[in-house]
Amino acid sequence: MNLILLGINHKTAPIELRERVAIPRERLGEAARGLAGIAGVSEAMILSTCNRVEMLAATNSPGVDVSNFLLEHLAIDAAELRPHLYEYRDQAAVLHLFRVAASLDSMVVGESQILGQVKDAYTVAREAGTVSHQLEPLLQSAFAAAKRVRTETEIGNTSVSIASVAVDLARKIFGSLTEKTVFLVGAGKMSELAARHLVAHGASRILLANRTLARATRVAENFTGSVRPQVVAWDRLHETASQADIVITSTGAPQPIFLREHGQAFLHQRRNRPMFFIDIAVPRDVAPEINRLEGIFLYDIDDLQSVAAAHLAERTREAGDAEAMIAVEVERFHHRQKTVHVAPLIVALQRRAEEMRLSELRRMHPRLEELSVEQAAAVEALSRSLVNKFLHPPMQALKLAAREGDDARIAEISAAWSLANAPVEKATDEQSMPRSTNQNSDASDAAAPVEELAVALRRGAL
After folding, report:
1. Does the annotation count 50 as an active-site position?
2. pLDDT confidence of residue 454
3. For the chain, how many structural domains are there in total?
4. Comparing C-alpha atoms, which of 19, 8, 11, 21 is closest to residue 279?
5. Which CATH number is 269's domain given?
6. Which of 15, 103, 293, 314 is the most buried (most CB within 10 A)?
7. pTM of the predicted model as reported, rounded to 2 decimal places
């Protein structure tokens, strides 16, 4: 399998460009199908968050180029976008994907939202029919590696996210959030997290608006903090916003919802008392021009990086442990990918041995037909055990040769067992690999029910 991962993120591109590249969730499936439709691309997934847009593609050959798709799909000039793009291929792409899922490439290292966002992108791609047997094992391995990082290191123990960093910034601005009114615009996960952090730090009143009233109401009703958010109808957004000292906005709107003229009206209604906007949406919810008004202070997601840096310093050691863990998981995935293509050979080897075993039982049928159920079970267990012990060395030799890339050795073993025509091209993923046969395996696991075996022996069915 050949892999390509192409994208931009908060490290390579400013928010002004990232918001133009961002793809709304409702268009991700269509975009993934467009990417998968490129000649040479067999499967595809697109991840779009506030900090990154990345395209992951499995291709039929190493020379496939998908860079033009992003340019054409988004209608952005190549000279403007290309300097900010990064591209990883094959094992480097695997490493980058694993690091992203484990939140080692995030603005706030260790934040928990990114894994859910990658899983959501995977779900969309699956529903669009663009993720199947090639990307499936890769993504499942990335999810497992991320889970291991979160459970075996301390990197995610502190509740840190873009939302919590936004609240930290609000505390730095005001000194205290006590008696402050906060307006959460957008009822997504970010808003829920922000609300909990705000109440924990003293906010006495929370307003909440969402384009879908039912969603806002559900978030408010399910809120477990001591201060329940007050839901505001979307059509009353601008007339209510002036009540807020802090507006934290995170919607999926394609255009700004707060313009300069709105800010002027807010200041007039507040009698020039200062007002702070923390915009964690991409595309941005607040027009940059609003920041030029005296008395209004605007911070966007890129402004949060300086606050996030403090969290990064605290997590350096844990991040190092997590990086080492991810490197091990990437190598493990790479080894599995090397061995998966011999799965059909191992299946064919097991089938050939099973045919021999059954042939010998048929030959010995006249001597076995009077066996009791217990005796028949013993014969079955003995024959299976002998076959398992006999198969163990060639199966391990096939796997070792695959890991080492020794095609000549694989061919020798295949020829010795007349496996040359095994359908290697049908090997798809790790799940197609048969369970390892070992010398201590319990032969009865795969045995037919004892009664059926005894009857078969007596009737000559074997």
Report:
1. yes
2. 42
3. 3
4. 19
5. 3.40.50.720
6. 103
7. 0.67
Q: Is the same domain home to 279 and 325?
A: no
Identify the pLDDT of residue 426.
39
Residues 302 and 326 in one domain: no
> What is the residue-wise DSSP string for 101-117?
HTTSSSSSTT-SHHHHH
Q: What is the pLDDT of residues 300-330, one digit of tens each?
A: 888 877 666 665 665 666 677 788 889 888 8
Interval 381-409: pLDDT, tens: 888 888 888 888 887 877 777 776 677 77
CA angle 421, 424, 428 (to 5 degrees): 160
**Length in residues, the chain:** 462
Q: Under a CB-based contact definition with an 8 Å cutoff, are residues 3 and 90 in contact?
A: yes
Which is the catalytic residue, given 47, 50, 281, 402?
A: 50
Cα–Cα dist 459/151, whole Å: 56
Which residues, given as ranges, of the chain have pLDDT below 50? 159, 422-462
Give the per-residue pLDDT at 309: 65
* Integer Rg of the chain from CA: 30
pLDDT of residue 157: 59
Residue 109 backbone dihedrals phi, psi, to 5 degrees: -60, 130
Same domain, 377 and 251: no
Q: Which two tokens stand for residue 454?
A: 């005894």
15 and 132 belong to one structural domain: yes
Query: Residues 6 or more apart from 352 whose CB is under 8 A from it?
Result: 417, 418, 419
Domain of 70: which CATH number?
3.30.460.30
Q: Do 137 and 32 reside in the same domain of the chain?
A: yes
pLDDT at 194: 74
Range of the domain at 45: 2-156+316-335
- The residue assigned the tokens 């908060």 is 10
CB 185 within 8 A of CB 160: no
